[in-house]
Amino acid sequence: MPSSRSNAGARAVAKQLKVLVPPSFHKMRISDELAGCFDAGGGVGEGAPGGTALVVSPFGKVWRVEVGRDGDGAFLGRGWAGFLAAHGVGVGWFVVLRHEGGGALTFKAFDTSFCIKEFAAPAAVMASRSRKGVSCKPQFIRIIYPNFTEKMIIPARFVKRYVTEEYLNSRTAVIFSPLGKFWQIELENDQSGMFFAGGWSQFLEFHGISKGDVLLLRYEGNMVFKFKAFGLSGCQKDFKTKDAGINQNIEMQQESPSPIRKRKDNDEKSSSEKNKRPKSSVTSLNAKPSLKKPDYQIEPSSWIRKEINNTYMLERFLPLSIEFCRRIGFQNTCTITLKTEMDCTRSWKVRGVAYKSYCCIRGDVWKSFCQENRLKTGDLCTFNIIETTLWHVTIKRSPTLY
What we know:
The protein is an alpha+beta fold. It is about 20% helix and about 30% strand.
């Protein structure tokens, strides 16, 4: 039945977050969107035929769980309580359900510390995941309470287990947005813990995240995070369709991360302040789309020019245009050799990382390159591409600002 198959494909990414209260252990309510992935007869009313979800366990076992409907809507029923009990999931935990297609349902569990539960899977399962490139990265969730709209504390258990000593005193973190943009968030550390602070409220406002929503943040290492957001219904928010004009502008500019700053009144801004202030990493919602062209060239000689506009770029990583990198053949993680003089033996082998939506050069060798060449904020680096993994770098120094 082609039509049914097409519908299943369209629903393959249905996802929902739920908090477990006592009644949820025997009959957990789910959205009609998620339940629709398992409807056997296409009915939507009370008593309509449901289906069976194949819930994939981290232990390598598949559990058959009833997907039913009653007067209050759709639910997971028979088999669900046994699945939760076998995995030690308790009251107050959060679960994230995702339909993977073919009737399969995967789940993540977050315990009362708000950190993801790491299940000890058998060696055979871990080997299979390794071959497929699947890994469970550190993650945590946070409900956006009213006191979390200006700054939000990172769970203490998460910090203790996953933030290494070298980053405990970090002043900034980077959150990668589904809209293809980096947000640099200032960190605060005190006796209470570690907080996302400066720029946090602007980040929430830009993405339409409000009180009662739930954030899921995945840690990529080096104080870099990716996130998903779930609304009051528990369904995942779709940012790909949110404000396409802003998204196009972001992709056009491919700017690097810099601190998010509160806007001052126009009469308080002097020309000197405008020159000294780092460029914002996010286009204003009220700003007109920029017509600025990407600062790179592909042929006949390929190069890309990047301004060092904040210390994060000197210490962590330098983001690059995804379009430029693809066109020069930089499409996978690799080692890139940087040279400031082609006839000199001195070189720096930096790590080049290609993600789905952006590329960057990063790591300790990149930091050493910046230090040894005395790069500072305001300097302009031009990377001339000799080969895909051999780049000649010229540096234009910025005049000192007083």
